[in-house]
Specification:
alpha+beta, three-stranded antiparallel beta sheet, single chain
Amino acid sequence: MAKFKLTQVEVDSIVVVERVVVGVGIRGVGLFDVGFKPYIDEKPLWQYRVWKNMLERCLSDKFKGENTSYKDVTCCDEWLSFATFLEWCNKEVGYSGKPDGMELDKDLIIRGNKAYSPETCSFVPKSINLLLGSNKAVRGEWPVGVRLHKRSGKFDARMSCGNEKRYLGLFDNPQDAFMAYKTAKEAQIKVVALQYKDVLKPAVFESLMNWEILSDD
């Protein structure tokens, strides 16, 4: 077992972790290999919480069953080590502690990526992850951003802007409705990317500025 405690500030300042093989900690695969406890006053270190949640998404059959978009998601071998993941986290955020309001993302640098790794991941604001989400269960067979307007038999386009819904119009066919959504959504993504430019990794910012909305997103 880990034998001593560090404060969160001390953990945040770590550049290189001294590896101490304590044991396999997460689903028989994740290796807990640091010499200090991952909890402070019964609350997990933020790096440990992010690591644990990432491995659950990769290894839990229950989670994958409830979140089918994660069916084929994996984790690289080096991030099975908590020590290695901790080093990456601290370097990624500049040893400044938990990035408030930000989440670990795996598929903005490489669109459609299914593997968590140092090369493909970054911390991004939660609002960006929500911005790029889609609700296939609601729209059914229609393109993203499009719904059948049952009363008229036409198709409406709408999108979320923060906590608000923006109505984009009613169209004769789903293709025209989708093009209205695509134009508005791509413009919105650029606005949000510019808003967060100072906190985004350059590769993430570039990806967002060139993001193309596809009908089957």
